[in-house]
Design a protein that fits this description.
212 residues, mainly beta, seven-stranded parallel sheet
């Protein structure tokens, strides 16, 4: 029920075809929720899937923290090139809760469709500390993509000195690409009180009712 990945671990250049997650996949059940920590100079890089979650997939009953000079880079997928946090059962019990903090870099990941950096599906994610989401590319949601799933909205917060910058969305239909953050539904929430969302192309935030 407790998973720790730390101290100079490298998870690199793995490939999955026809299923989710190229790098790390964590999933649990109501009987045994998972608490996960990824910390201290871990690199998750160059992983690939034809489906969703190139670098990391957290799915249902997972509470996770990524902190301490962790680099999630150069991963690719159809959706969620870097990280996918997704609900897949009754909320709040089955909701993934993820904190990304303290010098974590989610950089240079790509997605063919949605979420170059991070996809939040019916779950709760906070980007805080000095974490950076930068240089990621997707058709929609270059940096972050927020998805309501089966009536459960996504919750995303940017706080502390966290930065979402230099991400690119290349899509044109529908005309809300979301270079920095994109929402697919009015129910999703973005709380960017102290963090920075700047310098993304072609826009900072788009879709639903989010603004920054």
């Amino acid at each position: 029920t407790n998973v720790t990945i730390k101290d100079d671990v490298v998870i690199a250049d793995n490939q999955v075809f026809g299923s989710d997650c190229g790098g790390i996949f964590m999933q649990s059940t109501a009987a045994g929720p998972v608490t996960a920590l990824i910390t201290d100079r871990v690199r998750i890089t160059g992983n690939y899937t034809t489906d969703t979650g190139g670098g990391i997939l957290f799915e249902k009953w997972v509470t996770a923290t990524i902190s301490g000079e962790v680099e999630i880079s150069g991963n690719s997928a159809n959706n969620a090139g870097g990280i996918w946090a997704t609900w897949n059962n009754t909320r709040p019990a089955g909701q993934v809760q993820l904190t990304i903090t303290d010098s974590v870099q989610v950089v240079d990941n790509t997605a063919t469709s949605h979420a170059g950096g991070i996809m939040v599906s019916g779950s709760s994610v906070e980007l805080t500390g000095s974490a950076v989401v930068s240089g990621n590319t997707a058709s929609y949601g270059g940096g972050v993509s927020l998805w309501e799933r089966e009536g459960v909205p996504a919750e995303f917060k940017v706080s502390g000195d966290a930065t979402i910058t230099g991400n690119t969305a290349t899509g044109s239909t529908p005309p809300v690409p979301g270079g920095g953050v994109r929402s697919n539904n009015n129910a999703n929430t973005l709380d960017a009180v102290t963090g920075s969302i700047t310098g993304n192309t072609p826009d900072q935030c788009a879709g639903g009712t989010i603004s920054c």
